[in-house]
Amino acid sequence: MAASRADDIAARRREALVGLAEVERQLAELRGMRGVQHDDDEHDPDGVSLSSEWSRLEGLRQTRLDALTAIDEAAARIASGEGGICSVCGRPIAPERLEARPQATTCIDCAA
User: Fold this and answer.
1) CA angle, 71 as apex, 67 and 76 as ends, to 5°?
2) Across-strand partners of 92?
3) What is the pTM of this model?
4) Is the dihedral of CA 13, 18, 23, 27 positive or negative?
5) Domain range enclosing 41
6) How many domains is the chain partitioned into structurally?
7) Per residue in 16-33, pLDDT tens?
8) For residue 45, what is the DSSP state?
9) Lesser CB count within 10 Å: N end or C end of the chain?
């Protein structure tokens, strides 16, 4: 069971890295656009301002980084033999919960 969870976590880590790389690519593209356009784009009737797009992408980037951190912590718990144990009550976390959310640190009862 731990091996399949470790495989699932590794797959999710790869997906998270792909998502992070895409957001960072978009940010780099936006930086390039910002370098050639004027900074006062707040009143652009043709679409979203560069500033708001920058904020959106930075938020998305941070979300991806947080997910990656949670995935790495889950992998470390599995490697140390602590995976699947609720950090609050010490009881096992249901396999169904770990299948849906392998980075879960609490059982359903403690998560509520």
Assistant:
1) 145
2) 85
3) 0.76
4) positive
5) 2-83
6) 1
7) 999 999 999 999 998 888
8) T
9) C
Q: pLDDT (tens digit, 9 = 90+) per residue, 32-62? A: 887 666 555 555 555 567 888 899 999 999 9
Which tokens is 15 given?
């997906």
Task: Give domain status of residue 57, yes or no.
Answer: yes
Phi, psi for residue 70 in degrees, rounded to 5 = -60, -40
CA distances from 72 to 48, 57, 76 (A): 34, 22, 6
Q: Is 56 inside a domain boundary? A: yes
Instruction: Give the separation between CA 66 and CA 102, rounded to whole angstroms.
Output: 15
67 lies in some domain: yes
- Alpha carbon distance 52, 39 (integer Å): 12
Least Cα distance to 72 among 2, 18, 1, 12 occurs for 12
- The answer as to whether 110 is a domain residue is no
